[in-house]
Here is the input.
Amino acid sequence: MPEANISLYHRSVNGIASIIDIHGELTAFAEKPLIDTYTAACTPQTRAILLNFSGLQYMNSSGVGLIVTLVIRANSQKQCMMAYGLSEHYQHIFRLTRLTDAIQIFPGEREAVRALRTLPGVVTPKSRFQGRFLQGRK
Amino acid sequence: MAPFLQRFLSRKRTKRAGTKKRVQPGHVVASPASQSVSPPGDSASNDTDGWQMIQSYRVPSVLGNERLAMSYVAEALKSFHLTRRRLDQLGTAVAEATMNAMEHGNHYNPEIPVILQVFSANQAIAVRISDKGGSSQLLAPEHYETPDIEAKLAELQSPRGWGLFLIQNMVDEMHVRSDAENHSVELVMRLEGTTHTDQNA
Here is the structure.
């Protein structure tokens, strides 16, 4: 049975947002690691989820479905969802599928983090990162 | 949207989550803006209507092997110097069609390979992905549901079901052929000029 070829890392941004770093392949095999990472990344204070696709090597239609699942969960938690680091090709796919209606796309982490300031009631002191590593590969 | 596409597309609720849909044979699913290029034709033929087979591959029907199919096609088309964008688009379409072939046609039986054939003509390239599904695996067009992000986010549709949609939007034309035993999807991409895939990007 093929294994998930994905590595996921989550880190906190000022306690109000979490970045999920995605490395590898976003396919059907990535479902459990991705959902587990999202769950671990969320605290009662989490207002936004930032998906870092800089390390994404491949995403298929199942991966798109996983992103939709994440958005559904984030919406239920009243969390804003952002993404950055997408290649031109995957930005195109996000636009085609209208995922861009639900997820704001930024060129890089700096711009995405800066956009957190637009969340109502957010004050952004100097960022501190606390990382946890979850691997989808045995 | 072209009337013939409207016949295929409906907003019925999906009956099962995660179901991949296959289009009935003979239906040309193409961009409304495109002018159809005659597909390569019968799998046994070569040099039909200017098409010449560049390469043929056998891809074992194993989960994850769609990546292999992508790499084969990229290798076969090296000399055509496709732009990065076009190559990525074709790669995605090939991967999705191959996944469908492996799952629905060959039921992930590693003993039954997906046949990948790459063709070139004067102004276009084509990739044919064939499996042993035949017409028995097909749904009538009205059962194919266009993925709708709003419906999916409202959980009225399964979050999955993007495969055929991606194929249609990544290549200039898609042709489906089937008989009692075999099923083929042909993906056509023009080499020059403005196409709907460039316009959509």
